[in-house]
Amino acid sequence: MANHKSALKRIRSNEAKRLTNRYKHKTTRNAIKKLRDLESKSEAEAMFPEVSSMIDKLAKKNIIHANKASNLKSNLSKHVASL
């Protein structure tokens, strides 16, 4: 167990950040799944910018790697275009 006040605070703040990151990542993954399940092209085109924005925010906060974000967006745009 940590002995310093700053280390105890770091433990608390890391746990809070971990939970926030988990929530954001899971929410984005669910949005991606919903987008992939859509049959209608118009609905998918309307939803794509929102999902793309969510992915960009995860990459900006280093929750996911920038290249992974790019790959996800590329694959989703291909999917939407193929509908």
Q: Can you describe what's shown?
A:
By secondary structure, the protein is mainly alpha-helical. It contains 3 helices and no strands. The protein is elongated. 11% of the residues are buried.
What key attributes describe this structure?
about 80 residues; mainly alpha; about 0% strand
Q: What's the topology here?
A:
Blueprint: H1 5-37, H2 41-60, H3 66-82
Helix pairs in contact: 1-2, 2-3
The computed structural class is mainly alpha
Unreliable stretches: none
| Overall helicity | over 70%
Q: What's the average pLDDT?
A: 95
According to DSSP, the number of beta strands is 0
Please state the overall shape, judged from the principal axes of the Cα atoms: elongated
Strand content: under 5%
Figure out the total of helices: 3
Order of helices and strands: HHH
